Amino acid sequence: MFVFDSFKIPYRFNLKYKDMVSHEKNKSDQEILIDQIEAFAEYLEVEKNYALNTISSYKRDLLKFRSFLNGRSISEWSEIDSDVLNIFVMELRHGNASGKSLKRYLSSIRVFFNYLIANNILQKNPAQSIQTPRLERSLPKTINFDDLTNMMTLNTSSYKELRSVLMIELLYSCGLRVSELVGINLTDFDLNEGFVKVMGKGAKARFSPVGETTIGVLNRYLEKRPSCNSDALFLNQKNIRISSRTVQNVVKKRALEVGVSINVHPHMLRHAAATHFLQSSHDLRSVQEFLGHKSIKSTQVYTHLDFLELSKVYDEFHPRAKK
Questions:
Q1: Which residue has the higher pLDDT, 8 or 295?
Q2: Lowest-confidence segment of 61-65, 93-97, 116-120, 187-191 by average pLDDT
Q3: Does the record's keyword annotation contain Cell cycle (predicted)?
Q4: Of 2, 62, 101, 184, which one is least surrounded by beta carbons within 10 A?
């Protein structure tokens, strides 16, 4: 015989209410974690003067980590220990993350935790005890010199082709990063001296030489560049500064137009510039300055390349050598 137990109703209600309170508290704590990540990103921009791409990378890594924590009901940084971090790394491995990606994630977390310690939010950094995976140093992909020459050869005088060729000329002749190319303004050129000012990582300015061939393409491009209020060298269809993605698409499309069979990206042109410069000068420190590398270790990878072309190729064709 069924007996109605009225005392179980408030008991069940209290359990449900406690679950709701716990859920709301966890939601609030997770929002606090996100706010702290946003504050860290602002610190990198304002105090450390980091590049926007670097800041975006940190945020992306940390938000993925926060999502992982949320899935395990971890709502405070102080709850994280080496075991939690090892599980996070293990999940990344299972997701086929490369050794380079794992190293980047751990680096982002270490730097963030140090920031939390400096702001008295955390007492210790549990990421310091996590071993960083060893990386096999891969050589930069480069491009055949004949293919590169074809990409920089003008076939028409159209505005679009002039813009494409000038982008490639500057990426190669100045060894620029995409973000550096995008940031160039009309006022950054000193054509009398043959230099262009570029803003590198950490908003550090450097002056890169521009050769006669590149200056010739630049002058022809400026004649056809739309007149507008923007000071940016390169414009999109709306006559505002182009994006990095646009540059990537332009370089890829130009390579296809001239029959290059490999997938060409802007950083490949920077690698080609470094290769030819080192091949010609045999001066690693000069290449470091040319590329805007903070550490010589970043430049040393080019010493492992198999330089089959003669040094005179650089001396004859590279725009820097003509100055």
A1: 295
A2: 93-97
A3: yes
A4: 2
Name the DSSP letter for residue 260: -
93, 267, 322, 323: which one is catalytic? Answer: 267
C-alpha to C-alpha distances, 154 to 27, 121, 163, 164, 272, nearest whole angstrom:
58, 58, 10, 10, 20
Domains (ranges, CATH) in the chain?
Answer: 8-129 (1.10.150.130), 145-322 (1.10.443.10)
Residue 160 and residue 240: Cα distance in Å, rounded? 15
Told to judge if 221 belongs to the known catalytic residues of this protein, a careful annotator would answer no
> Is 177 tagged catalytic?
yes
Judge whether 270 counts as a catalytic residue: yes
177, 271, 318, 320: the active-site residue: 177
Q: Which of 95-109, 130-144, 229-243 is the least confident region?
A: 130-144
Please state whether 194 falls in left (phi above 0), alpha (psi between -120 and 50) or beta: left
Which member of 270, 271, 276, 318 is catalytic? 270
Please say if 201 is a catalytic residue: yes
CA atoms within a 13 Å half-sphere pointing along the CA-CB vector of 244: 11
Residue 105: name the closest of 74, 135, 64 by CA. Answer: 64
Residue 8 has pLDDT above 90, yes or no: no
